[in-house]
Amino acid sequence: PDVMLSVKVTAAPYGSWHSPVAATDVAKETIRLDVVRVDAATLGKDGLVYWSELRPWEAGSIRVCSTDTAKNENDSDTTQWTKGDYNVRTSVHEYGGAGFFVHAGTIFFSNFDDQQLYKQTAPDAEPIPISPPDSKWRFADYHSVPARRFIVTVREDHGVVLTGKATEPENTVVSVNTDSNEQSVLVRGSDFYQWPRLSYDGKRLAWIQWKHPNMPWDDTELWMAQIFEDGTSIIESSLVKIAGGEGVNVIQPCWSPDGDLFFISDSAASDSYWSLYRADMSGLGGHCKVLGEHGHEIGSPPWFFNEAAYAFNPENSKEIAVAFKQNLQLLNTDTGKLTVIPTNFCGHSFIVFSADGHILTISYGVTDFPCILRINPATGKVDEICRSSKPISSLDNISIAEEITFETTDGDHAHAFYYKPTNREFKGPVGEKPPLMVRIHGGPTAQMPPFLNMEYQYFTTRGVAVLDVNYRGGTGYGRQYRDKLRKKWGVYDVDDAVHGAMHLVKVGEVDGDRLTISGGSAGGFTVLAALTFKDVFKAGCSQFGVSDLGTLAEDTHKFESRYLDRLVGLYPEEKSIYDERSPIKHIDKLSCPVIFFQGAEDKIVPPDQSELMFNALKSKGIATAYVLFAHEQHFFRQLENIVAALEGEFYFYGRILGFNPADKFEKVPEIVNI
Fold it and tell me: Smallest Cα–Cα separation from 101: which of 93, 91, 90?
């Protein structure tokens, strides 16, 4: 029989607990699963499964791997395709996503260093560049079907800027002939494109497009046209707008095997949620909602390319695999019947329905790491193709998210997930409340789900509570909630961070004198704004955060160059609002210690945003630290830098809040004015 071993529980100050979660464990033993695919020419009938994974211990490189499930049914062997200096990562929109594709046994991928398009015919073959070396073209969001010998993709041309032909890169939809490698422009004229998708017979092309100042979760349009058999051109006379327009968002178009077009959409005219529709192909707008329910969304904001919240069974036009209500489900499009597929995971993305009858998905759990699953819906059998990390050895040390809703400004409510300090060997002293780290997600149009996050567990196992705030303006709570941040960035996000923290103080969960706030990118802006304009937090951490909204509006990339029009106001017409909300313009109000982490090659939020703030705090005599990582961009991908940022942040809080970490850090950030 199993024997339960008793564990001695020691009372020790919060923040000083010995933790089983090391920073190197968080970084080294965890890969990031990027995307899962099958061969577009076989639709997966061959049993081959492909995926890409980011490896922090290989300088953050993304590698393409595969396995043959027909040969390795139970314990699949992994074949690595890309090696050495090849890093499968596209920089279209700067954020990229899903940098490879498979067609007829050949992988096509974007290489990060030169952004050229390559093809590789076998795992041991040398990749061959197939795009012009000096073109300054970038590629993303590939698609094809068995009936065609070409790939459709989004191309972003930076050469037009370098030659002075345009002031910003040109985005188009192009085809790439898989034999000759020749490219043909299919669609141009809009500012942005996403999800070019061929019908199963290869005769029609659908895509999403939008123009400044919209983002892909704002007002977008779904278009469709017939395409010539050789893929060199669309038939202009067949061009029709299917859905979308002012106040309507459309994302993730997908063809059914019998030729119906489906998409996800919501509307600003009502408190709607992203729902699944069957298109009225006449373009008259008589679309049929197939799946949707108030309080539940399908899909997520497309910051990255190739998100897939649903997929058709290639052998059955009436059957869709869809992520809905924290489950993977089968939807019958005729009857509307939903059937839950048990997986023991609560989040599913990059869904692929293979022609061999299996569903592939990257799945996320509350107490388990992300996995690529291969599921047989007929038998219920679930196989793990790849894990991002080995299973948790002891769930006693895992802090499970508790969803909370709290009151905030203007009579409104906001949402968050709360993680209590949890360590099977420690508890806090009687009468002591734990410190709190409020975590602010980036975006700001985004959402943090309650999935297992080892960065949070790093803090909670050491005795620091974590509050992950899904402030107004985020996704997952409908269009009305998402639009609340319009003209209010720097106001509502700050209010919600403050009110979330004070809610936990009020109910007796945390120590009101030891509140900290942390975030990256847009979340870093909220951190700096909260520390500057509110007197609640005792310390903060900004990772590649924004300190000057005006500078961001003047010096950022095309994709987000007009994002602030909706979040703050028109620039420079409403410059006064930008100045009013920019922390760097009000440094006299800031008297709180801050640590900054920044990538030297960040083109989304350039280093000067952090450096300006650090130098201002330094000159004021306020405790601060600045850590600049060479060869890092937006987000940190290299092992040593992930470790340094995690340990450095915790060390900084210990110095400021007065607790002594049990860890013996090999390298700590230099804190000035302390």
Answer: 90
Q: Is 66 helix (H, G, I), strand (E, B) or coil?
A: strand
- For 68-96, write each residue's pLDDT tens digit: 998 865 555 899 999 999 999 999 999 99
Using an 8 Å Cβ cutoff, are 244 and 265 in contact?
yes
528 vs 7: CA distance, rounded Å? 42
Report d(CA 390, CA 393) in Å as an integer: 9
User: DSSP code of 613?
Assistant: H
Q: Which residue has the higher pLDDT, 294 or 121?
A: 121
Query: Distance of alpha carbon 576 from its chain centroid, rounded?
Result: 32
- Tokens standing for 336? 């509307």
Digit-coded pLDDT (tens) for 343-368: 999 999 999 999 999 999 999 999 99
Query: Contact 449/527 with Cβ under 8 angstroms?
Result: no
pTM of structure: 0.94
- Structure token pair of residue 614: 């650090």
Is the pLDDT assigned to residue 632 strictly greater than 70? yes
**Average pLDDT value for residue range 455-469:** 98
Closest to 155 in 3D by CA, of 115, 125, 121? 115
Residues with Cβ < 8 Å from 19, sequence gap 6 or more?
A: 423, 458, 461, 462, 662, 663
> Whole-angstrom Cα distance, residue 57 to residue 27?
8
Report in angstroms the alpha-carbon separations of 478 from 242, 325, 327. 23, 14, 18
Residue 2, pLDDT score = 42
Q: What pLDDT score does 355 carry?
A: 96
Kindly give, in sequence order, each residue whose CB lies less than 8 Å from that of residue 287, ignoring residues fewer than 6 positions away: 243, 265, 277, 278, 279, 280
Mean pLDDT of 496-504: 98
Residues 264 and 306 sit within 8 Å (Cβ to Cβ): no
CB of 226 closer than 8 Å to CB of 234 = yes
Asked if 330 and 361 count as a contact pair (C-beta separation under 8 A), the reply is no
Q: Is the dihedral of CA 365, 367, 370, 375 positive or negative?
A: negative
Q: Rounded to the nearest 5 degrees, what angle is found at the Cα of 123, between the Cα atoms of 119 and 125?
A: 60
Q: What is the DSSP string of 159-227?
A: HHHHTTS-SSPEEEEEEEETTT--EEEEE-SSSEEEEEEE-TTSSEEEEEEE-TT--TTSS-EEEEEEB
Between the CA atoms of 399, 401, 406 and 410, what dihedral angle is there, to the nearest 10 degrees? 120
Q: Is pLDDT above 90 for 394? A: no
